[in-house]
Amino acid sequence: MADSEFGDESEYGPSSTRAVIMDAVLAPFRALVSKSALRLYLNTLLFMGAATFLIGISAIAYGVFYFNFIPTVGLEREVHLQFGDGNPWGTAHFDSEFVALQPYDVSVTLELPRTPSNLDTGNFMLDLTLFSSRPASALLPGPNNAPISQARRPAIMTYASPLVDVARRVARMPLYVVGLRRESETLEVPMMELLEFRKGTQNLPRSLRLEIQSDSKMQIYTARVEFRARLTGLRWVMYRWKITSFVVFSSLFWSVSVLSAGLTWLAMTWVLGAMPKNEIKEEPEDSIKEESGDGDTSDESSEVKKEEPEEHERLLSSYPAEDDEVGTGSGLESAEARGVQRRRSHLTQTE
After folding, report:
1. Do the beta carbons of residue 90 and residue 215 sit within 8 Å?
2. Which fold has domain 74-230?
3. Per residue in 121-142, pLDDT tens?
4. Cα-flanking dihedrals φ and ψ of residue 250, to 5°?
């Protein structure tokens, strides 16, 4: 009976200890794979994916904003002059390069050969007119071709005395011989300063007409009209500090996008969580019968477990106690009683 006592202790004591130890060891891992942890992993993954996607969207949005907000700083058109009976003139066309309410400086660049006739011409006039359409005529003013802006400015070639002119030619003779330089002069004549166009496509220039007015015939190599935007304020900052502006404005746009996406996600979660659940699950009758059957079997098992201690007590009372073996009988009886009591406590725990 003593062996049975120690056997019972080895059966229930160490196993329960191992279960407690394993439960303590596996508790952190159960927390890592719980439903709340998996939901947190999914939300984090979705947030990181959305944030990465919004970084690309922010960069593209800044690029679109930059090219729409910042005008073309330097716009140049070459004018092919037409020579005939009158003064030489020429036209050029534009697309949609101009921005309304943006100041522009307009200038005309002429490359003139230093011929005696050009030097003898003296002062001459440059007439520049901007139009909002592209007529096929010589761009004469009319009801459908009203000018947006017009300017006339004087110009003259640089004077040089004969001695200085000869010395300059002698000094540049090697360059003239090899073709690196030619005997010409480039004049840059400012025509308009801080020119602004009103809002509306009908107020933006689509073509221009340049006319060179002089008393005598002139020889001209090339003629160009240049528009240079004078940036101020935010446009100047974005143009001068391109990388810094890109980082700042893209980060700002990304922050606003992430905040909006987060608020939208929280609102959707709250709305979906607050929706009433009207679905009622109907359990089939078979499952109810099975549950009732399980209840009956559990009641029977509990009755059997209650009868077992009574049988053990009847067995103990059936053993006679002799006079010469009183000590031994009482020892055996106490061991049997302890074993029965231990089994009874175990049965009550299982119930």
Report:
1. no
2. Jelly Rolls (2.60.120)
3. 999 999 999 998 875 454 455 5
4. -65, -40
